[in-house]
Amino acid sequence: MRNVIQATLVSEKISSNSKEAFELFEAQRFGEKTGEKIFYTLQETLYLVHAKKMEVLDSKDKQIVERELLKKFEKLDKKFKVKYFAFKDLRDKGYVVKTALKFGAEFRVYEPGKNIGEEHAKWILFPVSENQQLTWQDFSAKNRIAHSTKKNLLIGIVDEENQVSYYEVNWLNIK
């Protein structure tokens, strides 16, 4: 038996109650624990499937292959790929990336080694495509969200090769 998380996709929700899901949550903070299940974001799911740490089953217990998951996720979220490549890049570098929808952002980013739940994220991340227009009003709104949540703004620009460049914005109080 492999140590692969068996997860289920029901409408837009991916979850698992397997021992492996809880172990990975404790070790690397993948997913969100709610009651007796771990729920995964679309980005976490594809990341774990790609890493061969998760298999996703449909409601009939049929495995959904990675290519099909990608298609489903792109239908659910037009910006899925841009978000995914920023998520993947940071996770590959050891950062913990969690949703930040309640803050009005895409992701919260924790530095490696931080205790999630006990320590705060350093950044609010907004992944954007290099082809996406960002107005000063958009930029200002994103900066206000970061400032109001006491985090630094991190803009992740995903290029055509799916490489990500990051720009950090800090507030400077000049007296």
Give a quick rundown of the structure.
By secondary structure, this protein is α+β, with helices and mostly antiparallel strands. It is built from five helices and eleven strands; from the N terminus they run ββαββαββααβββαββ.
How would you describe what is shown here?
By secondary structure, the chain is an alpha+beta fold. It folds into two domains: 5-76, tRNA intron endonuclease, N-terminal domain (MutS, DNA mismatch repair protein, domain I, 3-Layer(aba) Sandwich); 80-169, Trna Endonuclease, Chain: A, domain 1 (3-Layer(aba) Sandwich). Helix content is 32%, strand content 29%. It has five helices and eleven strands, in the order ββαββαββααβββαββ. A hairpin with a 2-residue loop joins β3 and β4. α2 runs antiparallel to α3 and α2 (42-50) packs across α4. The longest helix has 13 residues, at 80-92. The model has no long low-confidence stretch (mean pLDDT 91).
* Record field, number of beta strands: 11
**Compute the gyration radius: what is it?**
17 Å
- The CATH first-level class of the largest domain comes to Alpha Beta
Annotated CATH architecture of the largest domain:
3-Layer(aba) Sandwich
Counting DSSP H or I runs of 4 or more residues, the number of helices is 5
Distance between the termini: 63 Å
Largest sheet: 6 strands, mixed
Biggest sheet, spatial arrangement of strands? 3-4-2-1-5-6
Give unreliable regions as ranges: none
Number of domains: 2
Shape: globular
Helical residue percent? 25-40%
Mean pLDDT: 91
Q: Give the SSE order as H and E letters.
A: EEHEEHEEHHEEEHEE
Find the CATH topology of the largest domain: Trna Endonuclease, Chain: A, domain 1
Percentage beta strand: 25-35%
Q: Structural class per helix/strand content?
A: alpha+beta
